[in-house]
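Running this now, will post back.
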Amino acid sequence: NMIVSLILFLVILAIFKIILFPQILLLIPALLWLLFLTIGISLFTASLNVRFRDVAFFVQTLLILWFYATPVLYSMDLIPESLNLLFSVNPLTSIFELMHVALLNQGVINYQLTIFNLAISVLIIIIGVLVFKKEHKYFVDWL
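Update: finished.
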């Protein structure tokens, strides 16, 4: 769904001549980062869900809250100073800020925040892979 939507959005941007070539290249690392972060979270939560069935309900609730704590439709500039810490530890913040710059030419890339969020993402990916490798031997027994 995302790829189809993105292609349609890029066509619309091309029709209105809004695409800026050097900035559109930021979309590649943003999408790859999103892919690997999703893989890490999926491996972690899927491994836990096989063992503990209630994890699915927790993840569904957490995803809704996480959506509202991610600047998808708004820029980081609109966030009050009191909530900056909450948004700073969210790895999706930097991913969507990269997408804002790449697609809409809006927002500012904070390199310190991006490196911090990249470190959090790598940690999530490592934890997801380690938990999956540890637990996958028992999946058949628990199912």
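DSSP finds eight helices and no strands in the chain. More later if anyone needs it.
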